[in-house]
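Q: Convert this sequence to structure tokens.
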Amino acid sequence: MKTCDFVDCKNFPCTDVNHSSYIIPGIEMEAMKVSIVMISESAPEKLVDYYYAEGSPLFAETTLLAFRDAGVKVNTVSELIEQGVYLTSAVKCGKTTYGIQTGTIIECSLLLERELNLFPNVKACLLMGDVAIKAINSIAKRNGEPRPVPVGSTYKIRANEFYFRSKRVFPSYLQAGASFFSEKSKRKMIAEDLSAALKLV
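A:
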């Protein structure tokens, strides 16, 4: 199964993102084997940096390092996939400025919701940064469900347990991008969150 065969944006209504860097994962997956979904912020500015791009894309490099920080011996995204980990972004286009408008996150959460529905056996969702957290909360609000992650800084709330449709959700920090290399304190917390999620599966 390829996610891009089931999820797509037809109208591109958002004005604060780069539509030329739009991407939905096109990697072949066994949906029933996916147990962990890692949701980062947005697609990269350059698609050669996306998780599933050929070579050594930046998003893959920093994500693999995050898993190694957590004690997981992986060298390729394919090895993560084999372990039931699916990588995606909350916003499917690249950023044009530092932040992303709330309306864009809400709009793209429609796609993310359809995407998550493809994987019925997920035990944990890693929400890597505020955009991913807002996207999950938007899905819940739209469907009249309780807010999965409360308002508050990630640092203060991340030690608590939160759930979304019976799945454990982990509010964490962004692992995709060059800044990951230098943020030692956040890397430590990300590793802790990954370790906790992996214990569920």
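The mean pLDDT is 95.
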